[in-house]
Amino acid sequence: MSEVEQPSGVLLVDKDPGFTSHNAVALCRRILQTKKVGHCGTLDPMATGMLIVVIGKATKMQDLLMCEDKVYTATMKLGVETNSQDADGEVVAVKPTEGITEDAIRAAFEYYHGEFDQVPPMYSAVKINGVPCYKLARKGKEVERKARHVAVLDYEIIRIDLAAAEVDFRVHCTKGFYVRTYAHDIGQLLGCGAHLTALRRIRSGHFDIAEAVDVPTLKAASREELLARLLPVEKVLADRV
Questions:
Q1: At residue 106, does pLDDT exceed 50?
Q2: What pLDDT digit, counting tens, does each position of 205-235 carry?
Q3: Which of 44, 86, 88, 185 is catalytic?
Q4: Measured by CB atoms within 10 angstroms of the end CB, which terminus of the chain is less buried, N or C?
Q5: Contact between 132 and 125 (Cβ < 8 Å)
Q6: In this structure, what are the phi and psi dihedrals at residue 21, rounded to the nearest 5 degrees?
Q7: Domains in the chain, please, with CATH?
Q8: CB count, 10 Å around CB of 203?
Q9: Cα angle at 226 between 32 and 218, to 5 degrees?
Q10: C-beta neighbour count of 237 within 10 angstroms
């Protein structure tokens, strides 16, 4: 295949639980018969939603697309802490939630509205001396991580169920933001601890999840069908002027 025939563009994938960015890249490489495929930021294994795959000339846009704001919907469980800050981790603490009120929960969310520093979790891809934190965490090691300056631009509490000790919410945040750490920190502020039980990325920059192809459709797609779903580089750039 000549250079002119090489596919280029952005593919939006609606990630399933357990389907990784590596899976998406490998699948697109095979279907499109090209090696020049990358992605714009991973999602946690349990998470679903927007995964941006860049192909051909679009790989040069990775940094630009990764820097954009994100919107997530999520569910947090109060009273239970895990070592990964989500449901994939091991329970490390269980605390009562009987005294927690709706007003206290709303005040905790409001406390983390705006700009603040956030320490990435140990179970993350953040590197310390070239080694990803999650590899150290799996060996039982805890190392100091540098706090990142992040921001919650907007949020909405969708549901509070005090009996089940659950909170559904939506958060619009800046790049490098860990929603599971957000849930963990809110739990710490409430004094009962918390962890994330569900996470879905519904928007990234100008891209909406409604535009994304689901995984079963992606797996069944022909080369021509996938080429037809690519967003042209020129259009993606024009939307960001």
A1: yes
A2: 999 999 999 999 999 999 999 999 999 999 9
A3: 44
A4: C
A5: yes
A6: -65, -35
A7: 9-67+207-234 (3.30.2350.10), 70-203 (3.30.2350.10)
A8: 20
A9: 100
A10: 12
